[in-house]
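Predict fold of Flavin reductase family protein; 164 aa.
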Amino acid sequence: MIDRETFVELMSGVCAPVTVVTATSADGRPHGSTVSSFASLSLDPPLVSFALDRSSALLAHLQPGERVGVNILGAHQQELASTFARRSRGPGLKFDGVAWSVRAGLPYLPESAGWTAGRVERHVDGGDHVLLVVGVEEAEPTSTAPLVYARRVFGTHSRLAVAS
Ligand SMILES: Cc1cc2nc3c(=O)[nH]c(=O)nc-3n(C[C@H](O)[C@H](O)[C@H](O)COP(=O)(O)O)c2cc1C
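Predicted 3D structure, encoded as tokens:
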């Protein structure tokens, strides 16, 4: 077995996307959390996945069959990443003071680097996390520079300087 610190240090060196995953609860309230484990899973059929901590408040609203939105954050949205990484102090409160709207029935953050929405197809056991497999129903790419996270800092992606 490797120790926890070594594993955390290894994974901090893996550059990850930054998204805000959203859901609408049965009472119509918005829910959202910052999620970096978002990844493409399958092209045919189109599937994406992400992992949520079993203690995540959002997880309760993303059971198999429920709808989910993914706002892929842009390099200018670091503050939103921090806002949605805070523990929920009550239903919908993370959205206070945030510019958002409803798109396809889901909380949507305008001016993000990308948007996708779909339905949770299944949960897969992932130790202290749950892997959610999502069937993609809607996708909007943009050319906005993405926000990325590595070594505990936010950044963005850019082309390497070409060696002369
Ligand atoms: C950059 C970044 C990426 C994160 N990625 C994940 C993730 O993939 N899965 C997860 O469960 N939590 C992730 N978190 C932590 C959650 O955003 C945080 O625990 C949040 O408070 C969960 O809120 P909730 O309980 O309302 O779901 C991430 C936090 C940051 C800052």
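The helical segments are 4-12, 78-83.
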